[in-house]
Design goal:
Blueprint (H helix, E strand, L loop, with lengths): L6 H7 L2 H9 L4 H4 L3 E6 L2 E8 L5 E10 L2 E8 L3 H4 L1 H5 L6 E8 L2 E9 L3 E3 L2 E10 L3 E8 L1
Antiparallel strand pairs: 1-2, 2-3, 3-4, 4-9, 5-6, 6-8, 7-8, 8-9
């Protein structure tokens, strides 16, 4: 029996931009229409104030596309994705401390939760959810 997709991955599945980026490794101007974005390189898209749904909004989303796969980072000041990881990602993994960030003279602790592997868009999805006082919450997903 195939495991049901977690809530967050269901949202990704219904998003045309994410679908196109993951399945084709490229996006068009039409895919980006109406979005605030920059293209620092041909294979990198930085989105600002990205709405995955009415309730799920991100300060930034970075999409890196290569022949090896697609990496997507969702960054939000809202830590609900880390705190409520079981609801968003069907995970019950214990959070672990990661290498801290040092900015100036301040040290920012980082906690992470490794997510289970899933299949989406005919790709394997691996990921982590990170939490830090520096950036809030970061969802890091790899599609290959």
């Amino acid at each position: 029996m195939m495991e049901e997709l977690p809530y967050f991955l269901k949202l990704l599945k219904s998003n045309q931009l994410i679908n196109t980026a993951v399945t084709t490794g490229a996006v068009s101007e039409a895919d980006l229409n109406g979005l605030v974005y920059s293209l620092p390189q041909n294979n990198i898209i930085n989105l600002k104030n990205f709405k995955l749904s009415d309730q799920e909004k991100f300060k930034s989303v970075n999409i890196f596309m290569s022949s090896f796969g697609v990496l997507i980072d969702f960054i939000s000041k809202d830590e609900k994705y880390f705190i409520n990881a079981p609801d968003y990602f069907n995970t019950h993994t214990v959070a672990r401390y990661k290498t801290p960030y040092i900015k100036g003279r301040k040290i920012f602790k980082v906690k992470g939760i490794k997510l289970a592997e899933f299949k989406l868009f005919e790709r394997t999805v691996q990921g982590s959810v990170m939490q830090s006082d520096l950036y809030g919450c970061k969802i890091m997903l790899s599609f290959f």
